[in-house]
Description:
Structural class: alpha/beta
Number of helices: 37
Largest sheet: 6 strands, mixed
Distance between the termini: 77 Å
Strand content: 5-15%
Mean pLDDT: 87
Shape: globular
CATH architecture of the domain at 296-467: 2-Layer Sandwich
Strand order of the largest sheet: 3-2-1-4-5-6
Helix content: 40-55%
CATH topology of the domain at 296-467: Nucleotidyltransferase, domain 5
CATH superfamily of the domain at 296-467: Ribonuclease H-like superfamily/Ribonuclease H
Oligomer: single chain
Amino acid sequence: MPKKIAVIDGNSLMHRAYHAVPPTMNAPDGRPTNAVFGFVSMLLKFVELENPDAIICAFDEGRPAFRMEALEAYKAQRPPMDDDLKVQFPMIEKLLEAMAIPVVRVKGWEGDDILGTIAARDEALGYETLLVTGDKDAYQLASELTRIVTTKKGITDVAMYGPREVVERYGIEPSQVPDYLGLKGDPSDNIPGVPGIGEKTASKILQQYGSLEDVYANLDKFRGKQLENLSNNKDAAFSSRRVATIVCDLDFPLDLEAVAFPAFDEAKVTEAFGSLRFNAHLKKVLSLASGTSRSQADLACEPIVKGQAANQLLEEAIARGERLGIAFQESDQASLFDAGLILAVNASDGTALFEQDDALGALARIVCEGAFAALDVKKAIQYVYPADTSLKSLVADRDLLAMDAFDLGLAAYVMNSSVSEYTYNALLDGFCGGVMPEAESDERAAVLNAAAARTLIEPLTSALVEDGGWEACSEIDFPLVAVLAIVERTGAEIDVERLKALGEGTQADLDELSAQIYQTAGEEFNIDSPKQLAHILFEVIGLTPTKKTQRGYSTNAAVLKELAKVHELPELIIRYRELAKIKSTYIDALPRMRGGDGRLHTSFNQTVTTTGRLSSSDPNLQNIPVRTEFGRHIRECFIPLKPDHKFLSADYSQIELRLLAHLSGDEGLIEAFCSGEDFHARTASRVFDIPVDQVTPELRSRAKAVNFGIVYGQQAYGLAQSLDIPYGEAKEMIDRYFEAYPRVRTYLDETIEQATASGCAVTMFGRKRHIPELTVGNQVQRGFGERTAMNHPMQGSAADIIKLAMSRVERRLAEEGFEAKLLLQVHDELDFSVPVCEIEPLSEIVRDIMENAAELKVPLDVDISYGDNWAEAH
């Protein structure tokens, strides 16, 4: 076998990694490390796949004079390198040095030319070369001994290009790539090419004529605009080809016969990787030296057993106290040859496969007796604990509350709540530097996923501990999974007849509104059509448009609100839209969404919001309007589970403002809450410098707006908009607020400063929210980042507190045998169905738990009330 040498285009991979990995990672000294992390992930994945005998890394060291002379604009339009990327190059070079990977720089030359030169030298020695780069120029170097490795997606999904793959992809030979770029150009490098010639045309021309010289020798064969463009841009075509041609004979010292990998000093590697807290990567690098590295595919190739052997493997693993990796796979179409439901259970000595009822029985046993990890624990346990009381449950509430489960998706969410998806491959890519092979069957997919689940436990745990998020994950989010499953199964009862009557009344209101709208407009039109509405407002009536979009003039809520100041029609449209939306979203939809037991079973999501708050879906019960009369009517339709029960609500009072007082340590704020007086009236008294007994409802309302605006980082412009007052007046109110509570201003400034330095804001319980906007150049985005940094410690801590309280309440209900059921969590509120005889003891327990969920410098006040429905309980 010929020696296999990998040559990495360092600049290309660093840029690719920088943009592929979220900017949420920092070294202990605060330097960003996302590009370094992604670079190493790519390198380790590549080593796992190809096992090269040696690795070399090339970096740019300027631009060749001949390219600059050929094209003065060569790469001129590229923006300066981001500071956050620039600072990471010395870090990656230090890691490469520790791994004994030679780094090559040649003054005045680019990495591509170093790659080309090493490939040519390798071919002369009969060596195989793998060029790891994201630059398509390198395809010209493909040969029988030289292949190009490039990323397809993210940082570890890679593709390999030899001569055959280049022909398949572009329709040309590798040697024609410079001519191809000469014709089509390369906008990323400011290589002009010939106007009007794209990829397909360039490929077709070269298939017919072979080279630029032959193209221009046959200009008489071209016609029209194409002939004109080729004729007028001959110099540009040849200059573009020259710039795109990689040099393969640079002069620099490098002993290709001596280089080898792995050939590093383990102590140096440990020190270098440890300094950046790359523990998962370190473990993998060290395993390369010891020869113990195993890919996900290797893990999945452990013994796979079924039947009695599967039961025995499971029993022995539980007896050993192992945390098992579990994964379900459900087929859309069950058949004689394809089971409808498969459970894979991965242990240290293999994978057990179970089907159908055996799968459910195995999971029930794991929940009750074992420890396990799954990508989405709640989704997994709902196979044996369905979210509908009409369906049989194989485990009891107490079993769920006592289960030992590690939720991989939740762990990754706590690490970075801004990520849009938490999949096996995304987690493997980010925390293990690899992805799984394609699964050819449902059974294989289950096996791979279970192996991935167990593999991810250690790196995710280590990452959480290092990042400071382990407490939020293990003490708050993990224990809440079982509670949410129980609440979802309990469901909420709705008064269908009342909803029906409400729907009929609403439709009558909509019909009446429609008639008013037509009368005011002077003609009938489709009220639900923004285009037709814009025609009526701006052409028929002649109102002045305030905002234009690609589809025409906007008629969104903000625009209508402004227009309503000068005409009555926009106000009618606003009311119509509100009624129509509530009718379709709730009145019409809720009865159709009931389960087999006649109840609504919403899904509570733990990994959707960036703040740590729960969200609700199918149906969303958290965005029913609270302060509108119509929202109240909807809530009147939510009733207790039984006729002799009441609907009880326990709601934190002003929790985020109380957290602001606690976190800022402002004596005035703390005293205001501890006094027990009306907090907003006290604020109005201090802001407007009048006695409390002279505070009018309007001044109290303004003070309330300032109080909550400060929590959300609102500036004077936002306050002016919300109160509909002049900017100067709003600014004066905010200035007076900070004069009244000076420590608040200091705290908020310090919070922004700390978040900017670390890249994230943190709750009282260590939950981080990464805020990349804090360091961007765009002032609007940076302003958003600063407001987010100010708010997260309050909003995130409030979310943590209500989740802690919810968990503890549910466990107390189970321990003490209450008949009462926890039905919903909506923001800062817990809702129950409770027998009349349990109202007093339940209220005492709930108040005690909620008020003592966290120790603050101010009291956590809880308002508890009850009634015959949700609206009355408020």
